[in-house]
Amino acid sequence: MNLLPIPQCNPGLSYLEHAAEIDATISAVLHGGHYILGDQVASFELEFARYCEVRSGLGVGNGTDALEIALRAVGVAAGSVVITVSHTAVATVAAIRRCGANPLFVDVNFSDGLLDPDQLDQVLEQAERGLLGFDHAQIKAIVPVHLYGRCADMPRILASANRNGIAVVEDCAQAHGARISDRRAGSWGVAGAFSFYPTKNLGAFGDAGAIVTSDAGVSERCRLLRQYGWKHRYVSDVEGGNSRLDELQAAILRVKLSHLDDDNGRRAAIARRYRAAIADTGLEGPEPDELHEDVFHQFVVRSGKRDQFQSWLAGRGIGTLIHYPVPVHLQPAYLGRVHVAPAGLAVTERLAAAILSLPMFPQLTEAQVDRVCAELEQWHENAEYP
Ligand SMILES: *Cc1c(COP(=O)(O)O)cnc(C)c1O
User: What is the pTM of this model?
Assistant: First the structure.
């Protein structure tokens, strides 16, 4: 029996699995002599847009930039307010702040960690009635985060946003290929922002990101913002910056995109095994839902004894992580500097203390999954462990 530790994730194995294909494309790009915004980027943009079932894609430097550029393109600026969740990667909030805007946090569902649409409606109504200390008109965007590979409740969120005349920009960094009501992550809002950080479902071997949209105006504004505001080379129409995707990462992403559905299928198969293994343990995990097609960026369980459970698993060689241990509104950089919905963030705070991400990557072997499942079955939430 192989008792080597099982890591929580391992992006290097994704390279090894496709090494021949990836080495060949890297070599071709290097010999081609064109390294920034060339054919590879243009082709990847088309292929990724088609994958997301939208009209256009735009490669950028990373996922945080993708969010910032998309938010700026829909009119988020200094003094704006952007509604989002505190139970997310800090990148979501960093992007909002980089626009000069402030987040307004609403609470999430305990069952899946995603934006609670009732809380959204409540805070929009409070904004309308002038109860929040800023104007309803300052709210320029809503950023639902499709955390762990499951889409937030986009039909309801979009309906609320439309009623209020507010743009929706989806944070799709953990949801490449996920669907709700048969529509892909990134195709619901006016724009979707993706990260291709190496551990994501679609990962580069460096930093990379993309914006997808079916809105021609938003697409064009994002294109200008990506490169110095240039409509024509060397002449800035608007003030922009530099957030370009390079040819090497785009070429690698084209190879990886051709394997994404297969990789997501392997993640889903591992998730089914985990779900069965925790059934009698008292641990809670993601429940299947017929509206959702999840891509299991993470498989997150909830335990009333999370810290004990984590060290118990570590003692058995099972690697885990916490996504995320401190809600953004409680982090030193943001404490007291962000808006929190009057109803508070009790669920967010309770969730942060209960969650644990099990090993999850497509290359987990059958034997490794067996071992994780066998250990999970040993745990009983109400038992006492030394
Ligand atoms: C990874 C991630 C981002 C940011 O992506 P980077 O490419 O690291 O900038 C944004 N939001 C969420 C939810 C993420 O998981």
Answer: 0.98
